[in-house]
Amino acid sequence: MARTLAPGQRSRIVTLDVNSGEITLVHESSEILYEAPNWSLDGSALYVNGGGDLYRLAFDDDGPRRIDFGDLPELNNDHVLDPDGMHVFVSANDGHIYRAPLASGEAIRVTNDNEDGRLHFLHGVSPDGATLAYIGLVSREDGSWAPANIFTIPAAGGDDTQLTDDEYPDDGSEYSPDGEWIYFNSERANTGAGHAQLFRMRPDGTDQQQLTHDERVNWFPHPSPDGTRLAYVSFPSGTEGHPADRDVIVRICDSDGGNVRDLRHLFGGQGTMNVPSWAPDGTRIAFVEYPIADGGAE
């Protein structure tokens, strides 16, 4: 079921200049809860999900325009553009990942029906478009969820490869622009419930390195187009998972975790910045904030 706005709440799609801090409001809605903006390859538009659909939001247009994917199941907020600029990979609420044409049309399923009943949540596409990095989630016999791990699969379909096998959840797997790293967040170094930090590893799962070491809960590292910086969402200490409707900080740091800097304090969390969020020229990031009248950060 797609998320909806609370009474008095708005979704504000904004861009932020990472050098000056200047905020630009792109679109605001009190009807649809938009989530997870990423950019077209030419920088002329954003792609956002809302109400289980994907929308194109051109900077020179009047508002978001829904993309028709035919009979594709309702979408969640995990969508990443194919480097060909003509397609997008999306996660649907049936637990599978699909490749669909940005100009509208029928989607093709990529992921497998695994024996473990795995759910697939897309976060990264390799720079050459050949491989997807996703989060696999499996239900235990008692109905609880096993810790999420990172997998890859060929973008054209094929065998899955498991890269992590943790007793604590991993999430947000995203490739560096040169394809040399997969960045992710993990609770493996936790000092308390829900305490996630940023990590990276090689695309084969080796050389795993912790990048941040603070007491906040850090999620969804997004490498800049030149690979030198990461943008991410930082939750208050003690937050479990990446819930909606929290006072969070959008932060930036060097690709090795150094020089952490706050960019924006906002009311948001889940949906704010779940997918690759940098403008192609590396000067801006896009995200969504969810202010509530008489409550939450404005």
TrEMBL record:
It comes from the Bacteria. It holds the Pfam family PD40. Gene3D superfamilies: TolB, C-terminal domain. Belongs to the TolB family. This is WD40-like Beta Propeller Repeat.
